[in-house]
Amino acid sequence: MNQARFSTNDLLAFLTANTMIAALKQPAEPFTVVETHEVRFDPRRRKDILQQIQARIDIPQILSSTTHISNLTVWGNDELIIVADVSTATAVIESLSRKSAPQQVRHVLDGLTEVNTISVDTIQVISTRIGRQGYMNSFTTNVECPAWIEIAPNYARRTRDTIDIIMAREELAANGRLMVWNGAPGTGKTFALRALLRHLAEKYIPIYVSDPDTFLTDASYYFQAIAEFSDRALKSGNQPGSGRILFILEDSVSALLTESRGKEGSPVSKLLNLTDGLLTRARNDLFLITFNEAIEQLDPAIIRPGRCMAHVIFTPLDQEEAAVWLNAHGSPTSGIPTPATIAQLYAHISGGIIMSEDQSGVGF
């Protein structure tokens, strides 16, 4: 994607104030951006990307600023400046020069795609339900799960940045055992969930709870799942993550509402105990709740730090994001109502019906 993340003036002002390049402080021929590239990659390989970029640049490094999300590094001399902003899943590399010099950063990008290409994996997902006699029934389904880097461009920037951070963390349960995902139908929650399953495949056993209301009211459900799948997996020696479980509860909005907590046996109270209880703390199980509604009465106890490690809001793409997506897929941008969900955009390029957001019931 050849679209600058920084404005040239802001970037040069920042560099002038923070570097020792004499040419930047002299009224000579100005530097201009001659090339910009954006490369997405597997967040787990961020260190590999940084090392490869560093190895491909043969001019002095003049600035480095690092956070847990991003690494901004600048190399430069009196004729050429290269800026690399490597976030959790995106590397934006810009070349600034006093002379027109196309392909200045091409040698930096050569070979980076080797760590950017990941095939779709098939993950076994266990579905559970409590039967009439109180015993748990289950079956296993093979689910095709894409790599997050392959589907990330389908999401609004704010949503994408939040999931980038989730994918970059080596130990999710260290910051809480609950994830809350909500957004309108068609915004891509299901495909993002598949990408998460792939990311956690070596650490967690995925269990899709098909009766979430029962799970959040029946105290024995959780313990049956542990005994049936986690303990059995540990004994067999064939288990990811020492038998830890990712419990997936779709369309479970009632578990998150403030008004539900005061009721006896409320799902909110059960969820609070599950995500912050002694056993789950010891086991580091994760709980992911998804729903379509936009919630204003979200119980604050649910999303307090230490319990909720991520609240992801899935939004439609705005006009600029939708235009970028359509251009990347070789489709005209005229006549598209915005904001548009990714389901609507796919329907548009495939010749299907596309309607404004308040009319569409399309899921994704």
Description:
- This protein is of the alpha/beta class and about 375 residues long.
- The protein folds into two domains: about 110 residues, Double Stranded RNA Binding Domain (2-Layer Sandwich), CATH 3.30.160; about 190 residues, Rossmann fold (3-Layer(aba) Sandwich).
- Helix content is about 30%, strand content about 25%.
- The strands form two sheets. Strands 7-6-9-10-11-8-12 form a seven-stranded mixed β-sheet.
- A hairpin with a 5-residue loop joins strand 6 and strand 7.
- The longest helix has 18 residues.
- The radius of gyration is 24 Å and the shape is elongated.
- The two termini are about 25 Å apart.
- The C terminus is likely disordered.
CATH T-level fold name of the largest domain? Rossmann fold
Q: What share of the residues does DSSP label as strand, in percent?
A: 15-25%
- Total helices: the number is 12
| CATH class term of the largest domain | Alpha Beta
Q: The biggest beta sheet, please? A: 7 strands, mixed
Shape: elongated
Unreliable segments of 5+ consecutive residues? 356-364
CATH architecture of the largest domain, please?
3-Layer(aba) Sandwich
Report helical residue fraction: 25-40%
How many structurally independent domains? 2
Strands side by side in the biggest sheet: 7-6-9-10-11-8-12
Order of helices and strands: HEHEEEEHEEHHEHEHHEHHEEHH
Determine Rg (CA atoms, Å): 24 Å
CATH superfamily of the largest domain: P-loop containing nucleotide triphosphate hydrolases
DSSP E strands, number: 12
Mean pLDDT: 75
| Structural category | alpha/beta
